[in-house]
Amino acid sequence: MDSGRRALTGATDARAAVIACYAAMEESLAESGVTRRASDSPQDLLERAVADGLPAETAAAALTALFREARYSTHPMDARHRDRAAAALAEISDGLRTRTSGRHAMTGTP
């Protein structure tokens, strides 16, 4: 998630910041065991992450929708888009961190 946060720091291009947040979410999902397959659409990845118990489903769906808008639309994007992506990324990050902590507590691993 750090790469997404770095993209938001001083970012002037909202479209690039949204895409960076989505990429950061993909990386975090991969670290949690849900890797993106070559044939996956953003929706496919989202569905598999939710099936795997993604704790921030609503935020992930919002970030996925923002990514599709940033990637495939041509209309201008602004700070509101970037801020929504940042909020979704923060919620996803918190959810994954909590889930990882819970798994470690149940297994006794650090």
Outline:
The chain has 110 residues and is mainly α. Helix content is 73%, strand content 0%. The longest helix has 29 residues.
Structure commentary:
The chain has 110 residues and is mainly alpha-helical. It is built from 5 helices and no strands. Helix 1 packs antiparallel against helix 2 and helix 4 packs antiparallel against helix 5. It is globular and about 35 Å long. The model has no long low-confidence stretch (mean pLDDT 85).
- Number of DSSP E strands: 0
From the spread of the alpha carbons, the general shape counts as globular
**Backbone CA Rg:** 14 Å
What oligomeric state do these chains adopt?
A: single chain
Overall pLDDT, averaged? 85
Helical residue percent band = over 70%
Tell me the major beta sheet. none
Uncertain segments: none
* First-last Cα distance: 20 Å
Strand content: under 5%
| Derived structural class | mainly alpha
Question: What keyword list fits this structure?
Answer:
mainly alpha; 110 residues
Please outline the helices and strands.
Blueprint: H1 2-8, H2 14-31, H3 42-51, H4 57-72, H5 79-107
